Amino acid sequence: MTDLTLTVNGKRVTRDVPGETLLSELLRETLRLTGTHVGCDTSQCGACAVHMDGKVVKACTMLAHQAAGTEITTIEGLANGELHPMQKAFNDNHGLQCGFCTPGMIMAGVDMVQRYKAEGKTLDEAAIRHELEGNLCRCTGYHNIVKSIQQAATEM
Ligand code: FES
Ligand code: FES
């Protein structure tokens, strides 16, 4: 066991966790932030996507200790009193069905909108579909997910 300190959703936390603990395990099992889902555990589905220092990462393929000293944001930390524009857009556009992929889709969506805006690039439908290659959805056919991200991109 080794002490690990990081910031999660704005709160500094220190926990004594084994070196082999995954970031997804730390979030879900130690901190009980179960909005971060685990679908594949092999970096394919994107259900475990969170932000580390403002950039999207897959929490199932990172060791918790690799996040030492960083700022992690999970789906639970995205809303700030009211829904984040990306969350509202998924609601407005029916961008989910079972919801299993949704936290990861939303975290990936926020990351891509912020990145494209920072780089002055246009996030059109083709770019959104390309960016979503790391996030799988079994239910929606992706169409309403793309529409949701397009709406949020105009509001963020
Ligand atoms: S659970 Fe991490 S990518 Fe699928
Ligand atoms: S809404 Fe069910 S997996 Fe995407």
Descriptive keywords:
156 residues, alpha+beta, Ubiquitin-like (UB roll), DNA polymerase, domain 1, 5-stranded mixed β-sheet, 5 strands, 35% helix, 16% strand, globular, binds FE2/S2 (inorganic) cluster
How does this model look, in words?
This protein has 156 residues and is of the alpha+beta class. The chain has two domains: 2-78, Ubiquitin-like (UB roll) (Roll); 85-155, DNA polymerase, domain 1, CATH 1.10.150.120. The protein contains five helices and five strands, in the order ββαβββαααα. Strands 2-1-5-3-4 form a five-stranded mixed β-sheet, sandwiched between helices. A hairpin with a 2-residue loop joins strand 1 and strand 2 (11-17). It starts with a strand and ends with a helix. The relative contact order is 0.16. One FE2/S2 (inorganic) cluster binds at residues 96-102, 137-140.
